[in-house]
């Protein structure tokens, strides 16, 4: 009997070892299946992310084209608009220049009514023009009296010429800034307003 019980124990041990190996195979198969599912899920997620990124990039480019169009065309259009505005301002200033000169002469001579002083239309001689240029130079050299809130009045720190020079410089800088932009400021503002809606 002891031999038979020994054999029974041997068979029991063999069965246990077989069951353990089978359990190990099941665990390994489950791990492999889990890793395969994780890899598949990761691949699907990366694919969805890539598709979403491509969609959003295409949407952004479409909106950018709608709001700004071709940047070269915008720069050219802005240059043309600026040139047209400058020409319009020149034409306007030429049309009122005589009135402005007359007003300046009245102010310089202390008269506020009617024509007085030197009239360039009546006397276009070089002496008359020199006299007018001299008057204009004097006016540009002057410093205005400025009113201060609760502080009375004071003489301005800058002459009229310095103020005019500063203003001209600001206009030139603004024109340069606008000509260097890829898209006009208006396009950015429209794009932002469309997003807010």
Radius of gyration: 44 Å
Give the CA-based shape. rod-shaped
Helical element count? Answer: 5
> Which ranges are low-confidence, i.e. pLDDT below 50, for 5 or more consecutive residues?
112-116
- Adjacency order of strands in the biggest sheet: 1-2
Count of β-strands: 2
Alpha-carbon distance between the two ends? 93 Å
Strand content: under 5%
How is the biggest beta sheet arranged? 2 strands, antiparallel
Q: Secondary-structure element order, as H and E?
A: HHHEEHH
Mean pLDDT: 78
The amount of helix comes to: over 70%
How many domains, as an integer? 2
- Structural class based on helices, strands and sheet pairing: mainly alpha
Task: Describe the 3D structure.
- It is a single chain.
- By secondary structure, this protein is mostly helical.
- It has two domains: 1-68; 70-196, no CATH class.
- The chain has helices spanning 2-68, 71-109, 126-141, 160-180, 185-196, and strands at 145-148, 152-155.
- A two-stranded antiparallel sheet has the order 1-2.
- Strand 1 and strand 2 (152-155) form a beta hairpin.
- Helix 1 packs across helix 5.
- Residues 112-116 have low confidence and may be disordered.
């Amino acid at each position: 009997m002891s031999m038979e019980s020994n054999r029974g124990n041997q068979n029991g041990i063999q069965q246990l070892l077989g069951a353990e190996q089978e359990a190990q195979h099941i665990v390994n198969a489950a791990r492999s299946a889990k890793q395969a599912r994780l890899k598949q899920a990761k691949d699907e997620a990366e694919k969805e992310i890539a598709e979403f990124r491509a969609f959003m990039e295409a949407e952004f480019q479409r909106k950018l084209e709608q709001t700004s169009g071709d940047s070269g065309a915008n720069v050219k259009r802005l240059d043309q608009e600026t040139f047209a505005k400058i020409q319009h301002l020149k034409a306007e200033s030429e049309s009122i220049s005589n009135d402005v000169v007359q007003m300046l002469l009245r102010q310089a001579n202390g008269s506020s009514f009617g024509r007085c002083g030197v009239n360039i239309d009546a006397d276009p001689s070089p002496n008359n023009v020199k006299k007018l240029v001299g008057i204009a130079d004097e006016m540009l050299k002057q410093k205005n009296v400025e009113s201060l809130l609760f502080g009375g009045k004071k003489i301005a720190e800058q002459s009229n010429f310095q103020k005019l020079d500063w203003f001209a410089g600001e206009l030139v800088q603004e024109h340069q800034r606008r000509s260097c932009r890829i898209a006009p400021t208006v396009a950015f503002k429209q794009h932002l307003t469309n997003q807010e809606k």
